[in-house]
Design goal:
The complex is a heterodimer. Chain A is mostly beta strands. In chain A, about 0% of the residues lie in helices and about 45% in strands. In chain A, strand 5 and strand 6 form a beta hairpin. Chain A is globular. Chain B is mostly beta strands. In chain B, the strands form 2 sheets. In chain B, strands 2, 4, 5, 6, 9, 10 and 11 form a 7-stranded mixed sheet that branches. In chain B, strands 1-3-8-7 form a 4-stranded antiparallel sheet, with no helix packed on it. In chain B, a hairpin with a 2-residue loop joins strand 7 and strand 8. The termini of chain B are far apart. Classes of the chains: A mainly beta, B mainly beta.
Chain lengths: ~110, ~120
């Protein structure tokens, strides 16, 4: 699976949009972009995933560039409870046994 | 959505004893489950892939005789840390995939192991 690069940390003001970037320049055609987050001392939580089209759900939006080499997770109105480590993971979805490989992630701090 | 239950959420044990951690898929069947370990301020590292009815597959550097994995049913995988030592103190997390869901993998809430 392709490797991802994320900034180690970011700050965001409460109520503002949080935009978390991820580079995945070696992504291949059948690989999806997944986003998970981990709040302190909990298991990772699924946020959103996409292949090439932008996606939106109740938690966030995922913007994938046309060349698919990078993406941005958008939390439209960040709250203090969104403080967590956010992981961008790229993997093929066609193998049932494939695990998720976690990189360093971005530690998002939402401040009042 | 899919739920993975992990138990216990935390455990303290004496050095040299063994500890068993359970991971259950509550509303789906999982032929494959994954065990991760996470040290403070570090990312999750895959330890092993647990396969129902067959032997687990361990990542390089993970001692299979120390971290015993049993996946005897489609809803339960267990990780036993044998002869635990303080350096085994960590956050252990399991994961499984519900193929009825499109979004991928569900994680347990994790087990904080402290060996004293």
């Amino acid at each position: 699976d392709a490797k991802t690069t994320q900034p180690p940390s970011m700050d965001c003001a409460e109520g503002r949009a949080a935009n978390l970037p991820c580079n995945h320049s070696t992504i291949s055609g059948n690989e999806y972009v997944y986003w998970y987050r981990q709040i302190h001392s909990q298991g990772p939580q699924y946020i959103i995933h996409g292949l090439k089209n932008n996606e939106t759900n109740e938690m966030a939006s995922l913007i994938i560039t046309e060349d698919r080499k990078s993406s941005t997770l958008i939390l439209p109105h960040a709250t203090l409870r969104d403080t967590a480590v956010y992981y961008c993971i790229v993997r093929s979805s066609n193998n049932a046994g494939n695990m998720l490989t976690f990189g360093g992630g971005t530690r998002l701090m939402v401040k009042p | 959505g899919a739920v993975v239950s992990q138990h216990p959420s935390w455990v303290i044990c004496k050095s040299g004893t063994s500890v068993k951690i359970e991971c259950r898929s509550l509303d789906f069947q999982a032929t494959t489950m994954f065990w991760y370990r996470q040290f403070p301020k570090q990312s999750l590292m895959l330890m092993a892939t647990s396969n129902e009815g067959s032997k687990a597959t361990y990542e390089q550097g993970v001692e299979k005789d120390k971290f015993l994995i049993n996946h005897a049913s489609l809803t339960l995988s267990t990780l036993t840390v044998t002869s635990a030592h303080p350096e085994d103190s960590s956050f252990y997390i399991c994961s499984a995939r519900d193929f009825g869901e499109t979004y991928g993998y569900t994680f347990g809430s994790g087990t904080r192991l402290t060996v004293v």
